[in-house]
Amino acid sequence: MSNPVIFQQAKFLTSAPTIRHLPADEGIEIAFAGRSNAGKSSALNVLTRQNSLARTSKTPGRTQQINIFEIDAERRLVDLPGYGFAKVPIAMKEAWQKSLSEYLQERKCLRGLVVLMDIRHSFREADQELIHWAVRSNIPVLAVLTKSDKLKSGARKAMLLKAREAVPAFGGDVEVIAFSSLKKTGLEELEAIIQGWFSAAAAEIAARNELS
Ligand SMILES: Nc1nc2c(ncn2[C@@H]2O[C@H](COP(=O)(O)OP(=O)(O)O)[C@@H](O)[C@H]2O)c(=O)[nH]1
Ligand SMILES: [Mg+2]
Predict the structure, then answer these.
(1) Side-chain half-sphere CA neighbours of 31 within 13 A
(2) Which residues lie with the beta carbon below 6 Å from any ligand 1 atom?
(3) What is the pLDDT of residues 21-48, one digit of tens each?
(4) What's the mean pLDDT when you consider all of the chain?
(5) 3-state SS of 116-150?
(6) 7-206 is classed in which CATH architecture?
(7) Alpha-carbon distance 179 to 170, whole Å?
(8) Which of 76, 164, 167, 201 would disulfide-bridge 111, Cβ 3.0–4.6 Å?
(9) Domain ranges within the chain, ordered by starting residue
């Protein structure tokens, strides 16, 4: 069994422009992905109870590198480069997309993917592609519908329901929650699911070590 995750312990470890600059591919990583401005950095800050751990920005497209936060020697949270941002030079955009896809395809310690999407525009094409990729790689997905405070209760419930109806089409382990960094809505669910992923991965690693 693994110890409970103490998210408050998270510390910035490093920023990697490409996957070759990442720490060794060992232990367990849970990654946060989403379009630029979806609310990734804000969610990471709420989760870790640190106001400026992951820099939040009103300028979309700022997070160009893979930012790694260490919880302890075994467990890390990863803020992936945002995608789908139009107002940057094409070469720059291609460099980010490359490091994103490389990380997703090659990182063996990746054991869970949190996909953040604005509750008002969930499951856009790039989000769907990412989720299909994770399902194909057997990585569990949590779709987090962000900025839920922007909608009134009725509309919020309708959007959550609509998003949940989209899940079976992915054919994998995909869950959906509504979330607000501003109001801390959905924080307990977010924590519980990530904790579950860390525990499951730790149990699997322990079982593998016993066999060898
Ligand atoms: N109202 C509201 N705004 C949010 C929420 N989360 C993020 N934002 C705002 O959305 C913008 C982008 O957030 P950020 O976390 O930097 O997004 P990232 O690009 O995905 O890392 C910022 O202006 C945030 O203040 C939320 O839950 N509610
Ligand atoms: Mg960010």
Answers:
(1) 24
(2) 34, 36-42, 56-58, 63, 82, 146-147, 149-150, 180-182
(3) 999 999 999 999 999 899 999 999 999 9
(4) 90
(5) EEECCCCCCHHHHHHHHHHHHCCCCEEEEEECHHH
(6) 3-Layer(aba) Sandwich (3.40)
(7) 21
(8) 201
(9) 7-206
